[in-house]
């Protein structure tokens, strides 16, 4: 891609965080002890967009909070650009910018003031802070709404304004927790263009949390797949997909119900994951061809509403790797 | 099912980092500039969210004045009613609203924004506390002037509000911030803020002479009392300025301690 080196920007070893069990009170059941991150090891290289992919509750945000010094791990080390963040969590703020999922600290400020204040709190003097504010708002196309409070904006616009606050006061590492949630395609493009520009000009590293597989496939250089607090795979999106390259996904959508009276369809029933009228099958390519020929040719065709044949996505990788949650990854 | 270890890339293990020099850290935000930045940002929130509440605070105090007009004829009781109502505005905004604000910010993760910026904790707490204390200025002045006119008290020494508002503001907003940041749940922060304000209302506005001993002790423990006393003393023909200064010094002392506690509570709440 743009600029890569073997230099490691962020090295994580043996990172473990356990939430203690909560005793049940009257009317409220207790929760058992939860390992939110379980012996996580990662290397994020300088200048790459590194993704953490997993369904809700996989431990992505907990992991990121430990990397940004917001949460102390029970054990393990985090080293960012040569600084030990577990021992010196306060250094994280001087080396990275974090975009969390919550904007309540900024909600009642105008877009311009949110960006300017954040720049000031990142240690910039008044003039440079205002110059950065203007440049970043212009770059992201926010100038027209600079005077409006974040609260009054749509979800996507507000997210973009928060992203702007992560960019003011340059940092070599950007940690972005689902930055494009709720954004329209134009805003998404503005985000990735701004990220790419910083990588090209300054070698900025990006650590991205996402549960959106389409976004993961298009923007990430490498991705770690998280499931129940553990890294179950880590590679380039293409590399991960090769692991399931011998499979093809066939989706069949029936008009009303599956025609089980057709023997060829009845045979498939046990191998399909049914969700309403939709059947999803993971098959070897020649098998898939046979299935498509059957359902589009014979008696089954009358009952068929739609079908798709697709090469594997990161979602298939996740499921093939044994991801516990059947749903939870977003395709959008 | 294959599980690929995280270190799939050969040679990426632990090598290299010890040799590479640590990256230069970004600048730290200094106390005063960041305090001013937080103060400005918080003040601007008033325009969006706080103005209706500031009206409520003022109307509440003006209402109490009108209500007490039927009960109290004048003299020292009138002085404490007017002073109590004026300081109540400070308690409403600086104690109650700030406790709610920090309680919510802490509960919904809003503190992360500040916690991932290289800003001194004191700047965040003092900036917010200062802004909330500033919100109280118009309401307190309006209440004090209205009360003086209503009860026929002299306006001569109302300039003392210039000291009472910031010092009582520091004490009460420090208390509010500390309550908001220490409360384990936001509802509890709201409750504590409300209780603090109710205490300031009952113990500050009602004349102390008629209260039982226990309640008077509680009154002495409440920092807003000293703001009320300082202001009430200045309505007399010959105010004893030494006592006024003494009361204000108590406010200042409580302010320093409570803001220090709030700063400590912020640091504790920011990293969990």
Write the layout of secondary structure elements.
The complex is a heterodimer of chains A (332) and B (272).
Chain A: E1 8-19, E2 34-45, E3 49-53, H1 60-67, E4 75-80, E5 83-84, H2 92-95, E6 96-99, H3 111-121, H4 126-139, H5 155-167, E7 173-177, H6 185-202, E8 205-210, H7 213-219, E9 222-227, E10 230-235, H8 237-242, E11 248-254, H9 263-268, E12 273-275, E13 278-283, H10 285-297, E14 304-310, H11 314-320
Chain B: H1 31-69, H2 75-107, H3 111-115, H4 121-151, H5 161-182, H6 186-205, H7 213-221, H8 223-233, H9 241-270
Helix pairs in contact in B: 1-2, 1-4, 2-4, 2-5, 2-6, 2-8, 4-5, 4-9, 5-6, 5-8, 5-9, 6-7, 8-9
- Strand residue percentage of chain B: under 5%
Helices of chain B, by number, come to 9
Morphology call of chain A: globular
Structural Rg of chain B: 23 Å
Number of helices of chain A: 11
Q: Termini of chain A, distance in Å?
A: 24 Å
Q: Report low-confidence residues of chain B grouped into runs of 5 or more.
A: 1-19
The major sheet of chain A is characterized as: 6 strands, mixed
Cα Rg of chain A: 23 Å
Low-confidence stretches of chain A: none
Question: Which pair of chains has the greatest number of interface residues, and how are they split between the two chains?
Answer: A-B, 70 and 53 residues
Q: What separation lies between the terminal Cα atoms of chain B?
A: 36 Å
Percent range of helical residues of chain A:
25-40%
Tell me, rounded to a whole number, the average pLDDT of chain A.
88
Summarize the main sheet of chain B: none
Helical content of chain B (DSSP H or I, runs of 4+): over 70%
Strand order, largest beta sheet of chain A: 6-7-8-3-9-10
What is the averaged pLDDT score of chain B? 87
């Amino acid at each position: 891609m743009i600029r890569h080196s073997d230099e490691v920007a962020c090295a994580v070893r043996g990172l473990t965080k356990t939430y203690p069990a909560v005793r049940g009170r009257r009317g409220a059941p207790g929760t058992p002890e939860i390992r939110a991150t379980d012996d996580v090891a990662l290397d994020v290289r300088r200048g790459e967009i590194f993704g953490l992919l997993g369904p809700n509750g996989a431990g992505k945000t907990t992991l990121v909070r430990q990397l940004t010094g917001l949460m102390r791990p029970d054990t393990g080390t985090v080293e960012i650009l040569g600084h030990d963040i577990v021992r010196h969590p306060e250094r994280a703020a001087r080396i990275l910018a974090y975009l969390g999922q919550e904007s309540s600290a900024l909600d009642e400020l105008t877009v311009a003031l949110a960006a300017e204040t954040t720049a000031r709190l990142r240690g910039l003097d008044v003039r440079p802070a205002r110059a950065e504010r203007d440049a970043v708002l212009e770059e992201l196309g926010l100038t027209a709404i600079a005077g409006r409070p974040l609260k009054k904006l749509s979800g996507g616009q507000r997210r973009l304004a928060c992203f702007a606050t992560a960019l003011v006061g340059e940092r070599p590492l950007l940690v972005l927790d689902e930055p494009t949630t709720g954004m329209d395609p134009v805003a998404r493009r503005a985000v990735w263009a701004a990220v790419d520009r910083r990588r090209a000009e300054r070698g900025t590293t990006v650590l991205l949390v996402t549960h959106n597989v389409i976004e993961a496939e298009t923007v990430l250089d490498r991705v770690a797949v998280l499931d129940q607090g553990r890294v179950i795979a880590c590679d380039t999106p293409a590399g991960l997909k090769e692991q399931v390259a011998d499979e093809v996904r066939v989706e069949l959508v029936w008009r009303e119900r599956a025609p089980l009276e057709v023997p060829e369809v009845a045979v498939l029933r046990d191998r399909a994951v049914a969700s309403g009228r939709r059947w999803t099958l993971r098959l070897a390519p020649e098998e898939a061809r046979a299935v498509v020929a059957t359902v589009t040719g014979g008696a089954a065709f009358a009952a068929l509403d739609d079908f798709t044949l697709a090469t594997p996505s990161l979602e298939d990788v996740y499921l093939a790797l044994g991801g516990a949650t059947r749903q939870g990854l977003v395709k959008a | 099912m294959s599980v690929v270890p995280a270190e799939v890339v050969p040679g990426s293990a632990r090598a290299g980092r010890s040799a590479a020099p640590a990256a230069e850290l970004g600048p730290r935000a200094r106390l005063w500039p960041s305090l001013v930045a937080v103060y400005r940002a918080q003040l601007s929130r008033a325009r969006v969210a706080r103005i209706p509440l500031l009206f409520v605070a003022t109307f509440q105090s003006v209402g109490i004045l009108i209500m007490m007009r039927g009960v109290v004829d004048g003299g020292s009781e009138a002085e404490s009613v007017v002073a109590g109502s004026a300081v109540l505005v400070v308690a409403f905004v600086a104690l109650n609203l700030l406790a709610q604000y920090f309680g919510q910010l802490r509960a919904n993760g809003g503190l992360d924004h500040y916690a991932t910026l290289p800003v001194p904790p004191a700047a965040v707490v003092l900036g917010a506390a200062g802004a909330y204390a500033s919100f109280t200025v118009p309401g307190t002045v309006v209440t004090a002037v209205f009360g003086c006119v209503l009860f026929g008290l002299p306006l001569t020494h109302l300039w003392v509000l210039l000291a009472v508002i910031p010092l009582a503001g520091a004490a009460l907003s420090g208390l509010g911030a500390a309550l908001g940041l220490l409360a384990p749940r936001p509802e509890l922060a709201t409750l504590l803020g409300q209780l603090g304000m109710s205490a300031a209302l009952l113990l500050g506005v009602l004349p102390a002479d008629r209260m039982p001993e226990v309640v008077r002790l509680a009154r002495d423990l409440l920092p807003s009392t000293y703001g009320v006393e300082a202001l009430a003393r200045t309505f007399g023909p010959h105010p004893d300025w030494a006592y006024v200064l003494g009361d204000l010094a108590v406010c200042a002392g409580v302010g320093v301690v409570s803001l220090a506690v709030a700063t400590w509570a912020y640091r504790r709440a920011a990293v969990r």
